[in-house]
TrEMBL record:
Record protein name field: DNA-directed RNA polymerase
GO cellular component entries: DNA-directed RNA polymerase complex
NCBIfam families: PRK09606.1 (NF007175)
InterPro entries attached to this UniProt entry: DNA-dir_RNA_pol_su2, RNA_pol_bsu_protrusion, RNA_pol_Rpb2_2, RNA_pol_Rpb2_2_sf, RNA_pol_Rpb2_3
Entries under Gene3D superfamilies matching the protein: 3.90.1100.10, RNA polymerase Rpb2, domain 2
Domain RNA polymerase beta subunit protrusion: 19-385
Length: 492
């Protein structure tokens, strides 16, 4: 391939995959789907003090819409704003957010109104940016660099980016040798179901006894939990865990003898006692339904699926211990990269819950015997705007995390591109012997093998290869399920 052909191919690749595409597409996904999902899962307020003549009263937030970046001048004129003006005037490049608020009394909509709740900072060059769709000539007229990749926010005139973070894949089974005394192997599952995140640990002891830890429940015998989930037939349990392997059959038999529980109620009672509850059965059911493998559901109907999955993981754990095999957690199939959508979802959900709490207080405070306060007066817009700006400006995030955003490096164009494509591990950098620091074969073609800082962050801070790209979020789960069925996968 000669230089001319190489230049044509590289130019074509960069046009189809812009250098900041993962920042832009992740932000667009959050605005299009993430915001509405938060509204649907969190947007119900049930005030304690209800209006007269209503036995059932709710405040429902049903829809959220976002405008284009604008500015309200001192003479109250609202007009569009461009990124260059935000930089020069030390402004924040953001757009108004509106929500539809409904008062529902005894199942009927009493009042409905669109309410302004704050302003959302906008990623430059995204479809919500005023530069979107502009030609090279139009960008130059608007005093913008046509080669600028975008993918960053402008907060108080300063360009800030959300750093892409690397973490272990959720809902994945990671089996390794257990360093805890008395245990030989363990399987870890970081269960993630939108708002619920619960780490699970299955352990195989030196005497081949199986335990599981999740939530406040510590070292629950696995066979007891399986019976509490409704699988009381020991023959069925042996068959599904062992899958015909005689050695695993012996291990399961040992567990059934060691933890002899005859019925589902006895199993639930035994688990409830571990939580020191008076209402043992109810407490056990509440913990199992809400915290055990929440990605299968959080209702009584999901128990069968949870039992099947628990038996499947038990089989993998025992088999891995017998063979001495560990899962390579540094293999990139066991990692996930989080961009704007993941981080903004976490932040916005936290702030929105506080806004709803304030709205509930304002409603109860403003209610009168013959008068219901207007939706505009119970929702305040200052909190959302201030908190979003503050977090993006400082990098201080929900849960005490810091350094989520950084000031965009503008020393040179390659430095800017490098910064936009930086990936940082969530592991702390004060330990020297992380295997995560090493180059792994599965990083080939995905990350630059050379670019990483010297010192404490070596290997933990990486950079995406020039032509690598992140898969888009929001896979069509129904289409995936159909494909799996077509390939012969059977439902439980």
């Amino acid at each position: 391939m000669n230089n001319k052909e190489y230049e044509v191919m590289l130019s074509s690749a960069l046009k189809s995959m812009p250098l900041a595409a993962h920042h832009i597409s992740s932000f667009e996904y959050f605005v299009e789907y993430g915001l509405q999902k938060i509204i649907e899962t969190e947007g119900i307020i049930e005030p304690v003090i209800k209006p007269a003549n209503y036995t059932d009263f709710k405040i429902k937030v049903s829809k959220i819409t976002i405008g284009k970046p604008d500015i309200i001048e001192s003479d109250s004129i609202i007009r569009p704003i461009t990124p260059i003006e935000a930089r020069i005037r030390d402004l924040t490049y953001d757009a108004p957010l509106m929500i539809t608020v409904s008062y529902i009394g005894d199942g009927k909509v009493i009042a409905e109104e669109e309410v302004f709740i704050g302003r959302m900072p906008i990623v430059v060059k995204s479809k919500y940016c005023n530069l979107y769709g502009m030609s090279k000539e139009d960008l130059i007229k608007n005093k913008e660099d046509p080669t600028d990749p975008g993918g960053y926010f402008i907060i108080n005139g300063t360009e800030r980016i959300i750093i892409t973070t690397e973490d272990l894949a959720p809902n994945n089974i990671l089996i390794n040798k257990d360093n805890q005394e008395g245990f030989k192997f363990s399987a870890k599952i970081f269960a993630d179901a939108d708002t619920i995140k619960v780490p699970h640990t299955l352990q195989l002891s030196s005497s081949n006894l199986l335990y599981i830890t999740f939530g406040k429940l510590k070292k629950v015998p696995v066979v007891v939990l399986i019976k509490a989930l409704g699988v009381t037939s020991e023959n069925e349990m042996i068959k599904k865990i062992a899958k015909g392997n005689e050695d695993i059959v012996n291990t399961v038999d040992m567990n059934l003898i060691a933890f002899n529980v005859s019925s589902e109620d006895d199993a639930l009672d035994s688990i409830g006692k571990m939580l020191h509850s008076v209402h043992t059965k109810e407490t056990a059911e509440l913990n199992i339904d809400s915290l055990l493998f929440p990605f299968f559901g959080r209702s009584k109907e999901s128990r069968k699926m949870k039992a099947e999955y628990l038996m499947y993981v038990s089989n993998l754990l025992i088999k891995s211990a017998m063979q001495g095999k560990e899962v390579d957690k540094d293999h990139y199939s066991n990692k996930r990269l989080h961009a704007e959508s993941y981080n903004l979802d976490m932040l916005f959900r936290f702030i929105f819950k506080q806004i709803l709490n304030d709205a509930k207080y304002n409603f109860e405070k403003g209610i009168r015997k013959d008068k219901i306060p207007n939706p505009k007066y119970i929702f305040t817009s200052d909190q959302l705007t201030a908190r979003l700006r503050s977090s993006l400006a400082t990098g201080q995030w929900v849960g005490g995390r810091v350094g989520i955003t950084q000031h965009l490096d503008r020393r040179s164009f390659p430095a800017t591109v490098s910064h936009l494509r930086k990936v940082e591990s969530l592991l702390t950098s004060n330990r020297e012997n992380y295997r995560a620091r090493d180059l792994h074969g599965t990083q080939f073609g995905r990350f630059c093998a050379v670019e990483t800082p010297e010192g404490p962050k070596i290997g933990l801070t990486k950079n995406l290869a020039t032509l690598s790209m992140l898969s888009k979020e929001g896979a069509d789960t129904d289409a995936v399920k159909k494909l799996l069925k077509d390939y012969g996968v059977k439902g439980i």
